[in-house]
Amino acid sequence: MYNPFNIQHCIMFKKNLLIIFYLLSVTVFSQKRIKPVNLSVKGDFTHEATSTIFPALWSGFQREAIYSYDLKNNHLAVGYVQQKTKKDKTTLTVYIYPKKEIDNQLLRDEFSAYGYALNQNSNKGTDLKPSFGSASNDHIKVNYIYSVFDHSMGRPDFFNGVKYTDKKSLISIYECGGWGFKIRVSSDNMTSDQLSELKDKTENYFGLLNIASKKTLPISQAPDIILSPVVKRDSMMINSTIIAAQAKIEWLATHLEKKELLTGFSDMNIESEVFAIEKMIEFYKAHEKDWKMDQDTKKYFDEMIRIADNGRIKDHIYEKYDRIINYDQGADKKDDYIQFKIDKNISEDTNQIFYKIFYKLE
Question: Could you name the domain of life of the organism this protein comes from (predicted)?
Fold first, then answer.
């Protein structure tokens, strides 16, 4: 079976060295502008790095703006608008941007950050329920997360300060190797099905799979591992976390197709996380007497073992990742799992994220 990751060389872990865990933000290769610039372009515009063409007119949409965030025009937000009547307007924005690093939490982090931003610009709560999809050909496979949702959008208003308008909206975020790609749609009158159809049409026209093929991940090399500072409290926590990270890498290498690994970690698949947790607990049980443990470490594993023994690992993962994981039964079991935690004295400490696996792209 094809195994792109050399597990034996997964980590070069030196004594007294702990790589600091950090929340990966979107970064770009080229120099950033002080503020975005609206490029003055007539006719078609070509994104040189990926050969993606953004026409002035497309499928009933008129290109409204091309915002550039870097001097080489690699990081772009291209806005289109379709205005049928004064009260029937649809806006479509396509985002494309290069990345320096890719980790297994990046897709989840971007989706979560977008949900937070939406709720900061709304007078109603916006429920960003995640859905999952993929697109592929013979050579490449792209996984993505998306949501179709109702949103009350706030805009400056001379008389009221801020005017809120109800919209039907869509966000879709893709794993495209060394390129980031997003689609954002907001509409006065489109249905959920129409928004999803527009998403598919946008993916195809603007060449999602072509973009993903431009800078694939170096899967002949093993991903690196970042450990959270909290694991440095004792040897058991450090070593068991490394085992969990290695187990996730092993699962990905043996269960995903090569063309899927080329574009991202596909960490929305809950089974890889289940496997990692099971291996972590297995290691703890085998080495429980080998090192002196901090009380927090002992408490953590006691609680995780109770979760595992009661068959609630998937429910734990669903809560840990705030439902941003592909688990069909998660929503139905959410309330029951909350009660289970109360009954079994399971703390919020079990929801800590101890590691990320990542590639640094040159």
Answer: Bacteria
CB 149 within 8 A of CB 172: no
Measuring CA to CA, which residue among 88, 77, 209 is closest to residue 139? 209
DSSP 8-state symbol, 325: S
Q: What is the rounded end-to-end Cα distance, in angstroms, of the chain?
A: 28
CA–CA separation, 230 and 352 (whole Å): 9
Per-residue model confidence as pLDDT tens digits over 156-191: 665 666 777 888 999 999 999 999 999 999 999 999
Q: Which fold has domain 32-214?
A: Protein Transport Mog1p; Chain A (3.40.1000)
Domain boundaries along the sequence of the chain: 7-22+220-360, 32-214
* Secondary structure (3-state) at 222: coil
Which residues are CB-contacts of 50 (< 8 A; sequence separation ≥ 6)?
96, 179, 207, 210, 211, 214
Is residue 337 within 8 Å of residue 319, measured between CB atoms?
A: yes
Could you give the dihedral angle defined by the CA atoms of residues 298, 252, 111 and 314, in that order, rounded to the nearest 10 degrees? Answer: -50
DSSP H helices in 206-294: 208-214, 235-255, 258-261, 270-287
Written as one letter, the residue type at 277 is I
User: Shortest CA distance to 243 belongs to which of 292, 285, 295?
Assistant: 285
Q: What is the pLDDT of residue 124?
A: 79
Each residue of 201-215: pLDDT tens digit?
999 999 999 999 999
CA–CA separation, 92 and 205 (whole Å):
13
In angstroms, rounded to a whole number, what is the distance separating the alpha carbons of residues 208 and 191?
A: 23
- Alpha carbon distance 121, 153 (integer Å): 6
Reported as a pLDDT band with limits 50, 70 and 90, residue 17 is very low
Count how many Cα atoms sit within 13 Å of the Cα of residue 236 in the half-sphere of its side chain: 21
The Cα–Cα gap between 272 and 314 comes to: 11
The whole-angstrom separation of Cα 261 and Cα 176 is 10
CA distance 18 to 231: 9
